[in-house]
Amino acid sequence: MAESTEMDQLLNSFSKFAIHGDTKATGKEMNGKNWAKLCKDCKVIDGKNVTSTDVDIVFTKVKSKSSRVITYEEFQKALEDLAPKRFKGQSKEEALQSMHSLIKGKEPTNVGVTKVAKTGAVDRLTDTTKYTGSHKERFDEAGKGKGKSGREEIVEHTGYVAAYKNAGTYDEKTKAK
Predict the structure, then answer these.
(1) For this UniProt entry, which residues form the secretion signal (predicted)?
(2) Same-domain pairing of 64 and 151
(3) Where in the sequence is the domain holding 8, given as residue range(s)?
(4) Most buried pick, 21, 94, 102, 162, via CB within 10 A?
(5) What is the DSSP code string of the chain?
């Protein structure tokens, strides 16, 4: 029973890394870039025994000739090839178990992702209460954008000039006389 949950966790990690950065990916096949990311994030690459070149060579060796991706079965074969190199001094089975324990349950990390700048200049430039002129007209009192009505002048066929303060008062003035 424990064996099957370990394999489920390994398959889950494979799927998560397979779809990382690709909106069209199904999670059933992994490309070389994501294979290298998995090896780097899960610390399979240690810089001494296993390098990024070793990872690329193993990927090329296990994939089919015309393919650019590996399946889950080819992924397991790649782990079998890398395990003795990463864990020297262990038997092939022990090395493979150690390799599985490095990968299972892991997800891709988002290192180096651009963060939103929260400096004084950005706050000052995006504060709608400090806008003047025509830019001020694009936002309501709460600072929420008005959308199209804030960008375009909508023509009202009332007979009055736009922004005329006494619009609609003509009839009242003529009745008084």
Answers:
(1) none
(2) no
(3) 1-103
(4) 102
(5) -HHHHHHHHHHHHHHHHHHTT-TT--SSEEEHHHHHHHHHHTT---SSSS-HHHHHHHHHHHS-TT-SEEEHHHHHHHHHHHHHHHSTTS-HHHHHHHHHHHHTT-----TTPPPPP--HHHHHHT-GGG--HHHHTTB-TTS-B-THHHHS-----SSSPTT-TTTT-HHHHHHH-
